[in-house]
Amino acid sequence: MNASEPLGLIEDLTVQFPRRRSIGDIRPKPFIAVDHASLDIRPGEITGLVGESGSGKSTLARALLRLVPFTGRVMISGTDVGALPTPAPLTYRRTVQTVFQDPLQALNPRHKVAELVGEPLAIHANFGTRNRQDRVVATLESVGLDASFLHRTTRELSGGQRQRVAIARAIIVEPSLLILDEALSALDVTTAASVARLLYGLLRPDSAMLFIGHDLAMVRQLCDRVHVMREGQIVESGTADEVCGTPRHAYTQLLVASIPRLLPKETHELRPAT
Question: Which one of 89, 110, 202, 249 is at 20 to 30 Å from 163 when CA atoms are compared?
Answer without folding.
Answer: 89
